[in-house]
Specification:
Order of helices and strands: EEEEEEEEEEE
Number of helices: 0
Number of strands: 11
Strand content: over 45%
């Protein structure tokens, strides 16, 4: 069973920075895509950023230019560097690892979530 362990959440003032990490129990080359999602109270879970095995990245418009996703293959870890944080970034952040089963379906694995709170 794949396990994803997140770390790095916390409380930060607006304008500050945090770095989240997601460490997998197996090689991240096992996954087609690893990404970060977030869910704020009363809102749906949304994709924040993702990175493929080939290193292609994708970002939500709301975080472009502020967040950077990266991977350290040797450590089986994906990072999310978050700069210029805003109160609206407050949410539980979840790591996701996906394996493509067919062109239209994936097997998804999720971490337990880490709280990010940005104070104004």
């Amino acid at each position: 069973q794949v396990q994803l362990v997140e770390a790095g959440g916390g409380l930060v003032q607006a304008g500050g920075s945090l770095r989240l990490s997601c460490t997998a129990s197996e090689s991240i080359f096992s996954f087609n895509t690893v990404g970060w999602y977030r869910q704020a109270p009363g809102k749906q879970r949304e994709l924040v950023a993702s990175i493929t095995g080939g290193g292609t990245t994708n970002y939500a418009d709301s975080v472009k230019g502020r967040f950077t996703i990266s991977r350290d293959n040797a450590k089986n870890t994906v990072y999310l560097q978050m700069n210029s944080l805003k109160p609206e970034d407050t949410a539980v952040f979840y790591c996701n690892a996906a394996i493509r089963l067919t062109p239209y379906s994936y097997r998804n694995y999720w971490g337990q979530g880490t709280q990010v709170t940005v104070s104004s």
